[in-house]
Amino acid sequence: MAELYSVKDLETQFHTREGTVHAVNGVSFSLNEGETLGIVGESGCGKSVSMLSTLRLIPQPPGEIVSGEAIFQGRDLLQLSREELRHVRGGQIGFVFQDPMTSFNPVQTIGKQLMEPLEIHLGMNKKQAWDRAVEMLNLVRIPNPDDRMKDYPHQFSGGMRQRAMIAMALSCSPQVLIADEPTTALDVTIQAQIMDLVLALREELGMSIIWITHDLGVVAGLADRVVVMYAGYIVEEANVKDLYDRPEHPYTLGLLRSLPRLDMDEKKRLVSIDGVPPVLFKKPTFCPFASRCPFRVSKCLEENPPLMMVGENHKVACWVDTYTEKER
């Protein structure tokens, strides 16, 4: 598969009264045509900030993109003018935000907000934009789309707002869809419906997807490849089957052990990860997971490991060499 989107050495900071927060620290990854990439990690690990930074959607100030590249179709998005970037956002790269209620304008109808990107990016007139917007609402399985176009966001349920947000993100047929924890605020039944919808749309439209989540259980049936982030770093990257079969980083192993399983003995307790994530006012010079890691060795407290290849398409940032050692 051809590479479609490539992020290299991305570093983002936030300047606050308490100090500078090193939110993203040299992140690099790629996305291939037709691929679904899962980016996972607990809250505050930098996964959402990484993707928002690539489209320059973080508030500046206090945010600052210190370095890096985000190459899409041969152009670095971090170097484009605001006008050039405006045509990439929504047109070629769609973004589904975490909270659809705050993402929609509460005083404009759903229809007006769906039509706007079609008029801007595709040059449609109002009739064409209306018909396309109705088509998209129908595609994401919202009943009576002609009537619902006239409704305001508060008249939609949470699941319907998220479907409408997906319809907006897909309306201009983007090559890449970035979904930032789109099912977090929804109940389990609606989560399953949204995921089934995205899978169906991926097959129908042939787009590539970046799915950001804190839940490894979600990406198991969705992603082709997974990137695991911790403290602003990528600590593991692998094909989804390899990651679940042989997690190489202690943090990934901890995340998997904390998931309930259908084959688990009912008397067996879920395993939690001890400790709390580090406060990143200072960029770590040693492994940021060392204080919480049950497998740490002396080198973990002295030097931050780089991402190293440990198998075919499998990388890990860890000084503990083997899966066997982590299982002890």
Structure description:
- The structure is a single chain.
- With 328 residues, the chain is α/β, with parallel strands linked by helices.
- It has 12 helices and 12 strands.
- It has helices spanning 47-54, 82-88, 100-103, 110-121, 126-139, 145-148, 158-170, 188-205, 216-220, 240-245, 250-257, 323-327; strands spanning 3-15, 20-32, 36-40, 63-72, 75-76, 93-96, 176-180, 208-213, 225-230, 233-239, 308-311, 314-316.
- The strands form 2 sheets. Strands 6-7-8-3-9-10-12-11 form an 8-stranded mixed sheet, sandwiched between helices.
- A hairpin with a 2-residue loop joins β4 and β5 (75-76).
Shape: globular
**Spatial arrangement of strands, main beta sheet:** 6-7-8-3-9-10-12-11
Give the number of helices.
Answer: 12
- Write down how many β-strands occur, each being a DSSP E stretch of 2 or more residues: 12
Main β sheet profile: 8 strands, mixed
Radius of gyration: 21 Å
Class of secondary structure makeup? alpha/beta
Termini Cα gap: 38 Å
* Helix content bin: 25-40%
Task: State which percent range the strand residues make up.
Answer: 15-25%
The low-confidence runs, each spanning 5 or more residues with pLDDT under 50, are none
Order of H and E elements: EEEHEEHEHHHHHEHEHEEHHEEH
Q: Could you report the average pLDDT, rounded to the nearest whole number?
A: 86
Q: Which oligomeric form is depicted?
A: single chain
